[in-house]
User: Which sequence fits this backbone?
């Protein structure tokens, strides 16, 4: 790799495989697609940084293009940077800033979660939000928990153990599904691992997806500052959200060129990858209950992009009575803030349709998936109960009561 | 660093890797498939070429490909087909079975080649074809209507028509007519068009514009955009509505049929419990003696290792990434296996030379168990099998055997996992 | 068929078209005859460097001064054909520091503004360059688009009544009583013959000038010096980079639009048509280029190409680079007693306007026309109005519009109109170089446009990463409605692909080999084109 070719621009053979695999380009003509916005225009951007196709805002940052590319071209990173250029020049709508600023929304909601959740269900408010902010009135808004994960963690501290990891819960667990974080803490404790937490910032993925690179970098810096001591001390940093995982493992290095990014990448690990290592060393507790549970499994796009396969598969296979059906039906379509935008709601639902159909066709009313946003979208599209796989594992250990 | 374990690690998600995984998982193995990206399969026509032309008369479409392959093995014992002749029929049956089970049946033409029209108006021979492309008896058509879409920049009915007249044997009275239908969009990408068809949104529009142009004995040809999923579904539906046969022709990428086949096979694997990781590149192999114990994999987000008992190297040729050429020479990208370069020159002067470009033939030599061997026939890595386009000795673009070789070699590797592991 | 004109110019390169424009502006009726498409010769097979003169400063002060003067004029009259990106001269470890000193003072004497700049800064903004650079100087080198200059000349000349005949080779020059009276042409596409009566013939046939002179039995000694160039897939640096040492092979990188060109070699050849690049030349260039760009092997080459320099040598036998780059205007009346025949030989692209001016001065004098040269003042191309560019961006996107505007000049407005009215025409046909269907369609309609190659030269379609694999097929489809392109698809497409292949073969490794495998997959596996009828 050389310096002006860091994104493997030269590897592109113009085969268009990325275009065929882009879920957005598949359902709308409004998006010029990953090839044009990525490697095609990148060659022009070396001369004219503003050579960005205006349709770049339609990229949902799902990274399917990059996964499919047979040439190893960093297509979505090119797209992210280009979007950044575009937004830096043309500005981002307030709506995007709001949606991307997940923490701000979360902190606000925290003041009065009941009210916010109620407001999110009242048609009038939603229509107002649609009119004023272009936030779709039809998309189910995430429910805010009455206490954040951090608050709950402090109330339920795990027992001290010599074996420790740091947990990076991410915004969705922090504000919306703290029970997932708690399940993780319990499962780890059950296996003799103490989970430490810190109040991290949003990993930055929503900001990146909206082209707000400077803000995202700020978050990255803050997180890095908080993580530094753990990195230096050799802690593993566990995630449950694939997007956070991808951000810490990859984007911090590739997009922001941060100093310790490389070492960070080596120490970040998905919780199920971690458990798999335990299993491999014979250290995983296998005192599972029989569950008689049939669930559909949806692999989030960002988990595909992380490239560690389906780490939960090997572990859940060990639990008696659990039957996991791989839905293999592509992107859910929500892509974080994307599907909340009024002009993208229909696109988002159209992308997710195949997945919804797969759930319905198989007659499943329970689905598991690692990403909070996918959980929300699948629930929105099918009415099924959707869980994080760690909740199933907690259930199997007799530690949880989330699965309905 | 994370380590994953499997019985069989298949490297590559092209046709040969997918076949190897399908056959291995059928035998109850824990199979992991890792690929850098999607392979040549998605770019191909989705048809399985087996052998296109007579060996003695290279202008003549070969009528009995399987027999011609027997002849081929006599004259060219180094062709990959020579390593898999024993399982050739069986592998084709296996493939057809999987496709049919997954709702995308593939059709055979009574043991002969199909001769199918292309978007350029040429005719190409191929062996197994998806139902939507199985054009029967074009020579009996009284009218051929070629339908394109306004806004689809990769398909031109008038080009097809102009050249089909020269390249196909048609009834002298056969009328050819190009038509461009409008479905209300400025720029159509094949995948988007296919999706809209699948959604049923534009079928009426198409039928309205096409139907008046039909006459008895007409055959309708479309670009390969009739639906995103496999099977004859969309072509069949249009045929019903139009009251005459409807087919897709092969076209340049991005085109759907190859992609459909890849998705069908991947889906098959996933539902059978194969763990699939795409977007991750195997960089190095770790050998102990002449066995591979594990490989290092570079993901989009770091590195991991995968250990397995048997490895299948289905990494394709240069395009797929199995072979890498730099100024100095050519190497196999993971195991550094010796690459057979027969010819002195990598290329010849005429781009479309009838003998083919030599570089397409470069690849790895294997024994009958598909294990890589050196010049003396000594096995280099015992628990490794090499399949598909990175095998030496086949010039698929000219011979018309790309997917055929990939299919048969992949199948055989899957079948032999137990045998090779025991060795 | 017979035509008439005061002057016939043989050769549609920079020099010939420059003369055509100059004469037309003086009101002299002229016809230019070119055997291929415009820029068929060396003017499309060069490095694209509008010299500051720095390269010649030490060795040939005269040439250096001409360069800088012409450089400044062209930047003024033809800004849309030129990227004023500036150049660097870099001294590297091991280079002779004394030469640098000599060079600095030579530049000053020639009037070239060479300003020393901080090496660290240079490396920071051009990370591809070697850290072995010891000193760096900025000079006003520019990248120039040969095609655009040529079309600019021709368009301007046509507006003033001049004519251009392409795909016609001059096969005979008629003379009577010691004066030329006309030329005979052979149309290479139709085989038709034609005569043009004239008072004067200007031989601006570049490397072919000797052959043309031989038609009237005269000897013009042009050394044919082949130079091979490499085109890389992307811009590797943001300035032109010259090695600061006595001029040699492979020591200039010119970033040019989306690509970078490294060159060049130098080898005496027998024929002006000997423009096939060889693999060994490619390897030689890479080896030298590596000194300035250490990771050069990791940059993708899209193709190699070669041109033949016309070096004038009045009767001696010295070969190659040591021959003067200056040009010579040969008045054959004075030299050989043949009235009405003039040859203009040698020179550089950079000095084409000056060469044309001198030639036209002589022609005007002989025709007793008293009109001064205006080419140094009259703008060659009008800048594209901002408003038009804005409209263009809406239909073609930012880079698409900018490039098309530069290429099309006055015609840009019509192309935009077509694209605005017809959505289909907004399609990007050549996705690598962002060329729209509207532009391709517009260019194809031109009566001088006969092959996909002609469209390529006028639009850059097929010049990018995939080298025509995708756009070649598309273009065929869109142009089928024009009879000239509907005749034989097989021939049009295969000639086009074959020409591209000629440049790809010498660089056939790495990604370009993958690209070739894809192209063969498409044209053989998918289309069976090798057996197409
Ligand atoms: C444009 C085109 C059209 C064609 N059309 C037809 C047709 O119509 N009919 C036909 O029969 N044949 C056709 N062929 C030929 C045929 O498709 C191929 O020969 C065949 O599919 C090869 O399959 P494969 O599995 O061996 O390799 P590929 O399909 O190339 O797959 C290689 C796989 O290995 C992966 N890989 C490579 N290196 C690594 C690594 N280091 N780590 C992990 N993964 C790696 C790749 O990402 C890819 O998934 C066509 C070929 C092309 C290029
Ligand atoms: C490798 C290389 C790199 C170069 N780089 C640079 C550079 O960076 N900067 C620079 O300033 N200069 C450069 N030059 C020099 C420059 O390209 C040439 O000096 C210039 O292009 C010559 O233009 P021309 O019009 O005289 O000749 P040409 O462009 O060759 O035009 C002559 C034309 O005459 C036509 N012709 C010949 N015989 C007949 C006939 N019988 N009938 C009809 N037509 C005929 C030919 O087809 C040809 O098109 C380079 C040259 C080479 C070879
Ligand atoms: S980026 Fe990758 S997938 Fe997309 S066209 Fe280029 S090589 Fe193909
Ligand atoms: S990241 Fe997703 S939406 Fe964006 S271009 Fe790639 S595939 Fe398409």
Assistant:
């Amino acid at each position: 790799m050389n310096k002006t070719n860091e994104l493997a621009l030269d590897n592109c053979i113009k085969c268009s495989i990325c275009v065929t695999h882009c879920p957005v380009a598949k359902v709308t003509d409004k998006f010029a697609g990953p090839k044009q916005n990525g490697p095609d225009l990148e060659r022009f951007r070396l001369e004219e940084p503003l050579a960005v196709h205006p349709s770049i805002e339609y990229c949902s940052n799902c990274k399917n293009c990059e996964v499919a590319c047979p040439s190893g071209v960093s297509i979505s990173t090119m797209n992210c940077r280009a979007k950044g250029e575009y937004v830096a020049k043309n500005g981002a709508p307030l709506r995007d800033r709001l949606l991307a600023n997940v923490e701000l929304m979360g902190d606000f909601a925290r003041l009065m979660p009941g009210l916010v959740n109620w407001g999110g269900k009242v048609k009038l408010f939603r229509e107002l939000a649609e009119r004023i902010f272009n936030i779709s009135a039809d998309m189910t808004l995430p429910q805010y928990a009455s206490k954040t994960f951090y608050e709950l963690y402090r109330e339920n501290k795990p027992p001290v153990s010599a074996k420790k990891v740091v947990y990076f819960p991410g915004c969705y667990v922090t504000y919306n599904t703290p029970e997932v974080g708690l399940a993780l803490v319990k499962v780890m404790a059950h296996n003799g691992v103490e989970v430490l937490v810190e109040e991290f910032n949003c990993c930055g993925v929503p900001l990146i997806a909206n082209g707000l690179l400077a803000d995202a970098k700020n978050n990255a810096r803050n997180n890095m500052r908080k993580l530094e001591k753990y990195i230096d001390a050799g802690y593993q940093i566990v995630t449950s959200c694939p997007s956070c995982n991808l951000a810490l493992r990859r984007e911090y290095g590739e997009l922001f060129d941060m100093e310790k990014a490389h070492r960070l990448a080596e120490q970040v690990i998905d919780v199920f990858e971690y458990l798999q290592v335990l299993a491999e060393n014979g250290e995983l507790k296998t005192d599972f209950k029989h569950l008689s549970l049939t669930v559909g499994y949806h692999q989030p796009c960002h988990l595909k992009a992380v490239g560690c396969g389906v780490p939960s598969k090997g572990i859940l296979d060990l639990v008696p009575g659990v039957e996991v059906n791989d839905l293999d039906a592509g992107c859910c379509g929500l892509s974080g803030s994307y599907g909340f935008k009024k002009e993208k709601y229909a696109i988002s639902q159209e992308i997710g349709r195949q997945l919804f159909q797969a759930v319905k066709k198989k007659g499943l009313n329970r689905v598991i998936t690692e990403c909070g946003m996918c959980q929300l979208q699948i629930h929105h599209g099918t009415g099924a109960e959707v869980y994080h796989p760690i909740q199933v594992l907690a259930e199997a250990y007799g530690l949880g009561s989330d699965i309905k | 660093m994370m380590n994953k374990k499997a019985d069989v690690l298949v490297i590559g998600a092209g046709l040969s890797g997918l076949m190897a995984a399908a056959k291995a998982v059928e035998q109850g193995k824990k199979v992991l498939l890792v690929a850098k990206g999607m392979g040549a399969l998605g770019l191909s026509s989705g048809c399985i070429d087996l052998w296109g032309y007579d060996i003695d008369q290279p202008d003549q479409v070969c009528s009995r490909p399987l027999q011609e392959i027997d002849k081929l093995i006599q004259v060219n014992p180094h062709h990959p087909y020579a390593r898999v002749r024993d399982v050739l029929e069986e592998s084709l049956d296996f493939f057809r079975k999987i496709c049919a089970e997954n709702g995308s049946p593939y059709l055979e033409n009574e043991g002969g080649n199909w001769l199918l029209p292309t978007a350029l108006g040429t005719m190409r021979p191929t062996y197994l074809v998806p139902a939507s492309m199985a054009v029967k008896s074009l020579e009996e058509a009284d009218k051929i209507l070629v339908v394109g879409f306004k806004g689809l920049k990769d398909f031109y009915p008038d080009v097809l028509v102009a050249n089909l007249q020269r390249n196909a044997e048609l009834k002298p009275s056969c009328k050819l007519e190009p038509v461009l239908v409008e479905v209300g969009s400025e720029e159509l990408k094949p995948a988007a068009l296919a999706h809209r068809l699948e959604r049923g949104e534009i079928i009426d529009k198409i039928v309205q514009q096409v139907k008046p142009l039909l006459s008895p004995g007409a055959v309708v040809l479309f670009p390969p955009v009739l639906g995103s999923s496999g099977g004859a579904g969309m072509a069949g539906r249009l045929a019903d509505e139009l009251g005459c046969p409807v087919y897709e022709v092969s076209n340049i990428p991005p085109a759907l049929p190859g992609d459909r086949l890849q998705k069908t096979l991947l889906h098959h694997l996933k539902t059978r419990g194969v763990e699939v990781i795409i977007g991750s590149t195997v960089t190095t192999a770790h050998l102990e003696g002449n066995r591979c114990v594990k490989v290092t994999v570079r993901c989009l987000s770091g590195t991991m290792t995968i250990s397995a008992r048997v490895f299948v190297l289905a990494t394709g040729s240069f395009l797929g990434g199995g072979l890498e050429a730099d100024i100095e020479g050519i190497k196999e990208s993971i195991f550094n296996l010796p690459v057979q370069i027969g010819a002195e020159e990598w290329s010849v002067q005429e781009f479309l030379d009838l003998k083919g470009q030599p570089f397409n033939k470069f690849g790895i030599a294997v024994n009958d168990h598909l294990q890589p061997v050196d010049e003396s026939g000594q096995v280099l890595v015992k628990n490794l099998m090499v399949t598909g386009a990175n095998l030496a000795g086949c010039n698929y673009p000219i011979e018309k055997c790309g997917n055929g070789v990939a299919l048969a070699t992949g199948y055989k590797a899957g079948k032999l996992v137990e045998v090779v592991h025991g060795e | 068929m017979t035509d008439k004109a005061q002057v016939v110019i043989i050769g549609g390169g920079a020099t010939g078209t420059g003369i055509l424009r100059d004469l037309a502006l003086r009101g002299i009726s002229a016809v230019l005859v070119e055997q291929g498409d415009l820029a068929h010769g060396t003017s499309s097979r060069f490095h694209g460097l509008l010299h500051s003169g720095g390269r010649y400063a030490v060795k040939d002060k005269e040439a250096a001064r001409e360069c800088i003067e012409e450089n400044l004029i062209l930047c003024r009259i033809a800004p849309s054909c030129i990227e004023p990106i500036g150049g660097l001269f870099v001294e590297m470890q091991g280079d002779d520091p004394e030469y640098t000193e000599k060079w600095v003072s030579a530049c000053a004497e020639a009037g070239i503004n060479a300003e020393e700049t901080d090496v660290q800064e240079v490396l920071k903004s051009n990370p591809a360059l070697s850290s072995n650079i010891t000193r760096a100087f900025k000079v006003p080198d520019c990248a120039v688009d040969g095609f655009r200059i040529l079309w600019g000349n021709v368009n301007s000349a046509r507006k003033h009544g001049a004519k251009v005949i392409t795909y016609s080779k001059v096969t005979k020059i008629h003379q009577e009583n010691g004066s030329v009276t006309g030329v005979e042409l052979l149309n290479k596409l139709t085989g038709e013959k034609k005569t043009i009566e004239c008072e004067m013939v200007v031989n601006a046939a570049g490397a072919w000038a000797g052959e043309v002179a031989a038609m009237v039995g005269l000897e013009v000694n042009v050394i044919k010096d082949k130079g091979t160039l490499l085109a890389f897939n992307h811009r590797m640096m943001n300035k032109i980079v010259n090695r600061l040492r006595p001029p040699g092979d492979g020591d200039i990188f010119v970033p040019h639009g989306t690509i970078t060109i490294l060159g060049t070699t130098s080898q005496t050849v027998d024929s002006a048509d000997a423009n096939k690049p060889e693999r060994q030349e490619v390897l030689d260039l890479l080896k030298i280029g590596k000194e300035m760009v250490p990771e050069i092997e990791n940059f993708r080459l899209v193709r190699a190409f070669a041109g033949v320099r016309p070096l004038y040598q009045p009767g001696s036998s010295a070969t190659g680079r040591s021959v003067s780059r200056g040009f010579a205007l040969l008045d054959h009346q004075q030299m050989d007693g043949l009235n009405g025949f003039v040859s203009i030989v040698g020179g550089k692209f950079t000095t084409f306007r000056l060469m044309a001016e001198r030639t036209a001065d002589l022609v005007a004098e002989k025709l007793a026309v008293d009109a001064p040269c205006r080419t140094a003042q009259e703008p060659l191309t009008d800048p594209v109005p901002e408003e038009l560019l804005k409209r263009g961006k809406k239909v073609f996107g930012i880079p698409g519009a900018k490039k098309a505007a530069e290429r099309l000049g006055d015609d840009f407005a019509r192309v935009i109109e077509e694209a605005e009215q017809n959505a289909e025409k907004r399609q990007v046909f050549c996705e690598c170089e962002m060329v729209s269907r509207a532009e391709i369609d517009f260019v194809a309609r031109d009566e001088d446009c006969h092959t996909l190659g002609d469209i390529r030269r006028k639009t850059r379609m097929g010049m990018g990463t995939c080298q025509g694999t995708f756009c070649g097929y598309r273009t065929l489809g869109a142009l089928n409605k024009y009879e000239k392109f509907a005749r034989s698809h097989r021939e049009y497409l295969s000639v086009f692909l074959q020409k591209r292949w000629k440049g790809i073969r010498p660089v056939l490794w790495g990604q370009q080999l993958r690209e070739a495998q894809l192209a063969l997959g498409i044209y053989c596996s998918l289309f069976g084109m090798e057996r197409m009828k």
